[in-house]
Specification:
InterPro entries: Asn_synth_AEB, Asn_synthase, ASN_synthetase/amidase, AsnB_N, GATase_2_dom, Ntn_hydrolases_N, Rossmann-like_a/b/a_fold. It catalyses: L-aspartate + L-glutamine + ATP + H2O = L-asparagine + L-glutamate + AMP + diphosphate + H(+). This is asparagine synthase (glutamine-hydrolyzing). There is one protein chain. This protein is α/β, with parallel strands linked by helices. Among the domains are: 217 residues, Glutamine Phosphoribosylpyrophosphate, subunit 1, domain 1; 68 residues, no CATH class. Helices cover 40% and strands 16% of the residues. The chain has 25 helices and 19 strands. The strands form 4 sheets. A 6-stranded antiparallel β-sheet has the order 2-3-1-9-8-11. α2 packs across α3 and α6 crosses α7. It starts with a strand and ends with a strand.
């Protein structure tokens, strides 16, 4: 996804710190494996790691002179609406060729209009601009916060970066974790934010400007409530049109390095089918699709998955005529120490659902190894089209807390998924019950209800708002493989539209995501259109539980393991000796996995706990 590092200092001469800037930029190499460049001036320095996804990124940082002073820009992700921006620039008397890189257009737009052009973009993007004319830094993110951007203050300035690890590598920054950061890291309420004490994040749809007098920040977009005035048929047609528009703009000109994940679920199948249709319209190459499965896993239906992915994915691939690839993993592949370390480095934090997320991490490495650079996913389908269980289960909808927390509690995880082994002192310090309640009230306090909405409609709007604003997509595992993620469903104009679609439209037909299914009904096999939601595959082979048990025992036998002060040792030892429970009990497995990940994180990142 490319990566940027920056350093602003109004007292030091950063020209002398160029080696440090280069070193800190290098921490982002996994995001940008195709090149590195550094620009340094006395007051500002920018470093960039390049992912050459489609040959159109341009050299970054991009430097142009405006009024006799440098304006330096860096952009990560894949901003959209560039044709519109190019036309606006042309109307302002500044012509640019169709192949002009995004960063050059953005630098020209800034020179022409200042920051006012940023809301015209869509996409996944993060922007950093240093304006030497006024010694001001501009940081901005897309509407849906799809590209990360963190920052922290030094004793005499500011550093910012695409990933936390680049900030933690700075000589003046320590990895200190207080109760607030640990709550975010291990609870399942909110996606992990900056986590470490002193680190902050530019918010989605935020333009943040930093100069000698400090910060000026403003939000340029938010999710708003409005009446939905179309009938079901018209709504279905609008969803289809908006998906096609998003696909058309999302697909690169050069599709030779384009791939798509395909689970056989309605989200990824819709994206793959629409993309394949657009490629045929252009007369281009066939779409390459990828599905993951386990070689030695006896599939077992459970509360999160009803059916195996691969047969459904193959049916879609046959119908859309894609070049299909089945990636088969061994059951214990994801427990290899190198994979554990790689997963941790990808996310800079413990993984909430290790087996599911790490199978995706390892799976996507195969796509990258076979030449993929841009990956289409069905990300955000559950959020936009109310497909997750907490959007269809009345008890969860009316739970009065985050419905995903209510789901975990329903199955016995009182404090959230994976937290069962925390000891009493840790739980007291974290006070997760109060944390969940406070964050929930803060979130629902942002919601605008429409006049005349009954209690059920208000509840459904509440759940929809929560999943759309508190469940952003995490593309870190793709970025760690040197791949750029593009999720055409996660398009802010479609998000705006879908948020206001009545729940009755979303759920018509007696199956979740009925509206999306109807919108693409002509493109997919009947069995896929009728397939109920099924989560990411996991291994049920006994070798997985045995390997997990061995690793867990090793941690508990180490008197210096940094996780020991946080966990209930007696309960942990009892679980470590209960192989059948590790094999069959998803909550127990999640607790063991989180303990292992937390231990590795505390050790590898040299985290100092300040609870």
């Amino acid at each position: 996804m490319s990566g940027v590092f920056g350093w602003i200092d109004f007292t030091r001469d950063l020209v002398l710190d160029r080696p440090v800037v280069t070193m800190l930029t290098a921490t982002l190499a996994q995001r940008g494996p195709d090149g590195e460049a550094v620009w340094v001036s006395p007051r500002a320095a920018l470093g960039y790691r390049t992912l050459d996804a489609d040959g159109a990124g341009g050299r970054q940082p991009f430097v142009t002179e405006v009024d006799g002073a440098p304006v330096v820009a860096a952009v990560t992700g894949a901003p959209l609406h560039l044709d519109d921006l190019r036309q606006r620039l042309r109307s302002a008397g500044r012509g640019f060729a169709p192949e002009t890189p995004a960063v050059e257009l953005i630098a020209a737009a800034y020179a022409q209009w200042g920051v006012e052009f940023i809301p015209w973009l869509a996409g996944p993007f993060a922007i950093a601009i240093w304006d030497a004319r006024i010694e001001e830094l501009v940081l901005a993110r897309d509407q849906l916060a799809q590209q990360p951007l963190y920052y922290t203050h030094t004793s005499t300035g500011l550093i910012f970066a695409t990933e936390r690890k680049a900030l933690l590598a700075h000589p003046e920054v320590d990895a200190v974790l207080d109760a607030s950061g640990l709550r975010e890291a291990i609870s399942h309420a909110l996606p992990p934010g900056p986590l470490f004490k002193g680190l902050e994040s530019v918010k989605g749809a935020e333009i943040a400007r930093f100069g000698r007098t400090g910060w000026t920040k403003r939000t340029y977009w938010k999710l708003s409530s409005r009446p939905h005035e179309e009938d079901l048929e018209s709504t279905t047609a609008t969803v289809r049109r908006m998906l096609e528009d998003s696909i058309r703009e999302t697909l690169p000109t050069d599709t030779s390095r384009l791939v798509a994940t395909l689970s056989g679920g309605i989200d990824s199948s819709s994206v793959a089918a629409l993309a394949a249709a657009e490629l045929r319209r252009r007369g281009g190459d066939k779409l390459r699709t990828y599905t993951v499965d386990f070689k030695s896993s006896e599939f077992e239906a459970d509360v999160m998955r009803d059916t195996r992915d691969s047969p459904y994915a193959q049916a879609v691939a046959d119908m859309i005529d894609s070049v299909h690839n089945l990636v088969e993993l061994e059951s214990t592949d994801i427990l290899h120490p190198i994979i554990r370390q790689g997963m941790l480095r990808a996310k800079d934090a413990p993984t909430r659902i290790y087996d599911m997320e790490t199978s995706q991490y390892l799976f996507i490495q195969h796509a990258g190894a076979q030449g993929g650079k841009i990956v289409l996913t069905g990300g955000a389908g559950d959020q936009l089209f109310q497909g997750a269980r907490w959007s269809t289960d009345q008890g969860l909808v009316e739970s009065g807390t985050f419905p995903w927390i209510a789901l975990a509690q329903r199955f016995g995880a009182t404090n959230g998924f994976g937290t069962a082994l925390l000891n009493a002192d840790t739980l007291a310090a974290l006070d997760l019950r109060t944390y969940y309640a406070d964050e929930y009230q803060k979130a629902i306090g942002e919601i605008e209800y429409l006049p005349g909405e009954d209690e059920w409609q208000r509840n459904m709007r509440r759940v929809s708002y929560l999943v759309l604003t508190r469940g952003p997509l995490d593309s870190s595992v793709f970025a760690a493989a040197g791949l750029q993620t593009r999720a055409p469903i996660n398009y802010y104009k479609l998000v705006e539209y879908a948020y206001n679609i009545p729940a009755a439209y979303q759920h018509h037909g007696g199956i979740e995501k009925s509206l999306l299914r109807a919108a693409v009904a002509d493109l997919l096999p009947e069995q896929v259109l009728k397939r109920r939601q099924s989560a990411t595959p996991v291994s049920n082979h006994p070798s997985y539980a045995q390997r997990l048990q061995d690793e867990f025992r090793a941690i508990l036998a180490d008197p210096d393991a940094p996780v020991r002060p946080l966990i209930d040792l007696e309960a942990s030892k009892a679980l470590a000796e209960d192989a059948p429970r590790l094999a069959k009990d998803r909550l127990a497995r999640a607790a063991a996995e989180l303990t292992l990940q937390l231990n590795l994180w505390l050790h590898h990142y040299r985290v100092r706990l300040a609870l």
